[in-house]
Every structure is written in C-alpha cells, then in structure tokens.
Amino acid sequence: MERAEIMTKTPTGKSVRLAQPVKQVTMDAGLVPQKAGRKPRQPSAEADPTKTTVNIFAPVHPSVAATRQKMKQQAAKTAAVRLGAAIDAGALPAAEAKHLLLARIVKSLGSAEAAEKWYRSHRLSELGGRTPAQMVRAGELKTLLEHLGKAAAAKA
Q1: Which residues of the chain have pLDDT under 70?
Q2: Which of 65, 98, 139, 151 is close enough to 90 for a disulfide, judged by CB 3.0 to 4.6 Å?
Q3: Which positions ≥6 away from 115 have C-beta within 8 Å?
Q4: pLDDT confidence of residue 3
Q5: Which residues make beta-bridge pairs with 111?
Q6: What does the H/E/C string look like for 71-95?
Q7: pTM reported for the whole predicted model
Q8: Rounded to the nearest 5 degrees, what angle is found at the Cα of 100, between the Cα atoms of 95 and 106?
C-alpha cells in the first residue's frame, strides 16, 4: 500500500505533511460515478476501456484527525482575535464591517433583504438618530455592536 502525502497548513503558515495510506484498485468503469460537466478520461490504446483505476484512501488515524481539528480551532481563534483587534482599532474596512453586521442582524430579522433594509434605513435614536450604514462609514462599528449587544440582552 502506498502513502499519499496530504498538505495542510498550521496557523503560523507552516506546511505539515500528513501521510495517509492509499491503494490503487482496478474496477469496472461503469461503477465509478462521473462528475457533471467533466469529460471521461481517455484510456490509453492498450488499456481496457471498460476498466478504470481508482485510489482508495485508508481512514485517517484518530491522532491525525485530532491534530487537524486542533489546527482548525486554532485558526478560528486567531481569526477571531484579529477581527476583534480590527474592530477595537476601528481599522475594519467598511465593506467587511457591513458584511459582519448584516450576518449578525440577519439572524434576528430572518432574511438578508430585511437586514439590508434595516442597515440602510433604520434610525437609532439612542445613537444620535443615525442609521447603521452611517455609523459604519464613520468607523463606529464597535459602538454599534455594543448597542446591539445591549439591545439583545434587554430582549432576553
């Protein structure tokens, strides 16, 4: 059985190779599902057109799966810390701030259309009668998120 090298990246950007056993098996070509819109492979002249070779990967060892899961969790934590720092510093670009805000609001309003309408037209009297769009453009995302957090806590 051969070993296939699988490349993954650590949160620091370092590449790690995780080996996974693989075995090549010849089987009937009619049994292999075809991807939509993909041309079937042209067999070589001496190959049997009714047969195909398939790679079968062995299950990943639990310790490898656990390592992958830890790497994903660490990457998510790092991304959250970076996002929090950008919000605190007021350095988050307006387009990303809008996307973040709409993703949070769509849960409570139920649709992306309703969230977009709220973002553009809802005046927040507690924040000087400005719309969320005006606050985001002014770089006051942190204040807006704090206000929304208090409003959500008051409802609960």
Answers
A1: 1-21, 37-47
A2: 139
A3: 102, 105, 106, 109
A4: 52
A5: none
A6: HHHHHHHHHHHHHHHHHHHCCCCHH
A7: 0.54
A8: 120
Strand partners, 128: none
Distance CA 108, CA 156 (A): 12
CB distance 57 to 22 below 8 Å: yes
Q: What is the DSSP letter of 118?
A: H
d(CA 99, CA 68): 28
Is 37 within the bounds of a domain?
Answer: no
Identity of the residue numbered 20: Q
Helix (H) or strand (E) holding 109: helix 94-109
Site of tokens 């970076």: 82
Domain limits at 107?
Answer: 91-155
pLDDT of residue 92: 87
Amino acid identity of residue 6, one-letter, is I
What count of Cα atoms within 13 Å lies in the side-chain half-sphere of residue 79?
7
Place of tokens 């992958």: 68
* Best CA proximity match to 136, nearest among 82, 89, 92, 104: 92
In a domain, 117, yes or no: yes
